[in-house]
Fold this sequence. Notes:
Layout: E1 3-12, H1 18-32, E2 40-47, H2 60-75, E3 84-87, H3 95-101, E4 106-108, H4 109-120, E5 124-128, H5 134-144, E6 150-155, H6 160-166, H7 171-186, E7 191-194, H8 199-205, E8 219-220, E9 223-224, H9 228-244, H10 261-270, E10 278-280
Parallel strand pairs: 1-2, 1-3, 3-4, 5-6, 5-7
Antiparallel strand pairs: 2-10, 8-9
Amino acid sequence: MKKNIAVVVPGGINLTKDTSREVVKNLFIKNAMKLKEDDTNIDFFFMKKGFMQMDAFSWKVLNLWNSMEFFEVVRGLKGRGYDAIVSHCFGDPNLYPMRQVMDIPVEGAFENALFFAHMMGLKIGIVTFSHHIIPAMEAVLLRYRCMDWIISMKSTESTKEDFVEMMVDANQLINTFTEKSRECIREGAEVIIPGCTIISPALAIAVGCEKTYPQGLREVDSVPIVDVISSAVRMAEVMATFKKAGIPWISRARTFNMPPKEVLDNTVKLFPYHGSGEQKY
């Protein structure tokens, strides 16, 4: 059953640069296609206006602007032939509002990683890139009612330079991530989630050290690591299959109830989008 999946990254990137295109191709796209079915087509979208620095995600006030742009990019994909959308961000920005407005499945990286991890083990450790981002993650965990699943949250304290490096050579990231994962494991973690959708692909592909880790970094001391993006893409395929088969795939009873068309159309007129839009890889 052929499916078209859109993967949307809530950050800006200059795709006119050859180096940027190579990073996207060798890291993000390669990771997204790792588990997909043969007849699934995946398109990547980046925001023309979006965060260029990872530390900006640490502040809620800054996320207001970025998350709204992300929402509009996703909404702009409505009616363009996609069967599902994957949010390529661990914070799952505007996931619930997007499900209210979209008539196709929208899958969040964090949400999927949590439920996949919980099927593998009951106590989960999360390793993210900055201790500043942990309160935002805790807020999402409370919304998902999954807080008691988390036994430990650690940070690699990655710098801007570290992020540039990990996208072309994951050796140092693997060393630091392994050290922090072991701290989680000592505290009881049975599964580790990489708390970032740059860290996770870098580990899953092990870019720059493929000979040492031909299948990516899959576990630390026999404790599995969730492949965040591959699992989200896989779930998007499952939910799209449900929808195509006429099987219920979402409840519109309360949380994800769609606004009436007239109300939605009037709201769109009231708040016209500025139109910076998305760029397709």
